[in-house]
Amino acid sequence: MTTIKELSTEPYKPDWCPGCGNFVILQAVKQALVNLGLKKEEVVITSGIGCSSKFPQWINTFGLHGVHGRGLVMGLGVKMANKKMKVIVIGGDGDIYGEGVNHFIEALRDNVDITLLVHNNLIYGLTKGQASPLTPKGRVTSSTPLGNPAYPLNPIALAVSQDCGFVARSTTSHMKHLVDMIMKAISYEGFSYLDILQQCVTFNKVNTMKWYKDNCYEIVKHKVGDKKKALELAFKEDSLPIGVIYNIKKDEFCKGHPILNKNPLIKRKLDEVNIKSLLDEISY
Fold first, then answer.
1. pLDDT one-digit tens code per residue, 72-127
2. DSSP summary character for residue 153
3. Residues 6+ apart with CB under 8 A from 41
4. Domain interval for residue 137
5. Residue 92 CA, distance from chain mean position
6. How many domains does the chain divide into?
7. Gap between the Cα atoms of 51 and 30, Å rounded
8. Overall pTM > 0.90
9. pLDDT (tens digit, 9 = 90+) per residue, 174-195?
10. Which regions of the chain does DSSP assign to beta strands (E)?
11. N or C end of the chain: which has fewer CB within 10 A?
12. Which DSSP category does 99 fall into?
């Protein structure tokens, strides 16, 4: 079984700002993989662009670091090519809900068996503190010096409205809870989505680790299959619920596909493929 030490990239260390929530999430993912008994060779982590998207560089599993907003696309491609791999997609609130929001919506619809972990610090961190799609209205940032004029997106409500099979929220101020939510997300058969509220010590001085400790509460006695109740939780503003918000069983994409439900694509023999007739049909 893989150990925490085997997942380490020592002597190379992350270059995140000291105190960044990414360190907590990195450790939580490592602990979750160990707790689940997964081998490092069974895991692929994909990401786009952003502070959080450097994640594949700092954990000793397979990894792909792509362009802005495209971590989900790569994750879907990996899973369709080799459905035996555990695929985890990493992205920030800008990367996933901004540049990659169309892919986020498509992933909700398709229900491919991958896990999305969003590092949500309510700001664009890597590019120097611009307002993200989740920055609160009125917040002063480097791109909104007079206050953010736009209302923030509610990705939790969006996911629930589209019947995402597993929707959850956690924070970097609740380490044990975070590990548990990551394990539940990875174990779900279908598309699982975990929004992780984290601090940005450099550009977001409001939503600190203490702020999340004071303003988040764990969900208790909640019917996870009740869509109406899940939406009520998603729209709560006075305090933020953390835990599994919505959880239903759905048909997984690859299992219902006439080609993908067979052996993994990487096992197929290319010498059996002949596209000459198709080329002849479209050639002039």
1. 999 999 999 998 999 999 999 999 999 999 999 999 999 999 999 999 999 999 99
2. P
3. 61, 62
4. 4-282
5. 8
6. 1
7. 18
8. yes
9. 999 999 999 999 999 999 999 9
10. 43-47, 62-65, 86-92, 115-120, 166-171, 192-197, 216-218, 240-247
11. C
12. I
